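Please fill in the sequence for the structure shown.

STRUCTURE ENCODING:
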């Protein structure tokens, strides 16, 4: 079975995340579960020029032991130091097919400022509002998560939520698809940016009214994921053309 479409999608997800300012330079990586024993993950090489320039060839097949998933897969490539983020997040929940570990500055800044991610708006971004309503947990260690033990600590903090903030570090977003994992991160970043803007303007953060939730329906994956992802891909193409 050819994995080229999946490699291309993971690489595209990396570039979209970078274009959105969710990562900078060499830091950050995405992964996609292929089966119970294998995943694709962004790896580094001596020719790596950063997440914004991720190539399908940078997406390598590995096992859940961190070894090459097929002959030659890690020739000239190294798995990320924080591979345990991906392995332990996928092990924690079978629904976690895709994992995005990113470093959005606004989310890190908001958390360090003591600003919790809350549903402060509604129709401005309905998926983001519902994401915030369910709660965004925080893993309160600003460490490099390079061991299974630390990965398990992070997933314990994450609980049953799809995203977790790693204090002084970044975020982990997990979903059934690469598109959803990145779009969740975009929504989280938008909430953090708006929260910082409101506070900077001297305002007070307030949750939207309870009565408003009935008028914030799930508009379906056609709009929330497929259309949203087409926009991100088109915006990326316009930015790099």
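FILLED IN BY: designer on duty
SEQUENCE:
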């Amino acid at each position: 079975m050819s994995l080229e479409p999946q490699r291309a999608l993971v690489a595209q997800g990396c570039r979209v995340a970078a274009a959105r300012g969710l990562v900078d330079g060499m830091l950050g990586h995405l992964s996609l579960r292929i089966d119970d024993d294998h995943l694709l993950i962004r790896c580094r090489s001596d020719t790596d020029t950063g997440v914004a320039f991720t190539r399908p060839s940078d997406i390598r097949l590995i096992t859940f032991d961190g070894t090459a998933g097929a002959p030659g897969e890690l020739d000239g490539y190294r798995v990320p130091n924080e591979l345990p983020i991906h392995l332990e997040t996928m092990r924690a929940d079978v629904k976690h097919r895709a994992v995005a570990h990113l470093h959005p500055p606004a989310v890190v800044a908001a958390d360090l400022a003591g600003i919790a991610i809350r549903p402060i708006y509604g129709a401005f971004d309905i998926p983001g509002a519902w994401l915030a309503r369910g709660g965004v947990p925080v893993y309160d260690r600003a460490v490099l998560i390079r061991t299974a033990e630390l990965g398990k600590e992070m997933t314990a903090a994450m609980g049953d939520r799809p995203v977790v903030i790693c204090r002084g570090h970044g975020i982990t977003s997990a979903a059934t698809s690469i598109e959803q994992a990145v779009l969740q991160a975009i929504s989280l970043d938008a909430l953090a940016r708006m929260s910082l803007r409101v506070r900077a303007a001297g305002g007070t953060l307030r949750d939207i009214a309870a009565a408003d939730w009935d008028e914030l329906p799930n508009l379906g994956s056609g709009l929330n994921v497929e259309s949203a992802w087409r926009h991100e891909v088109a915006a990326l193409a316009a930015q790099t053309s």
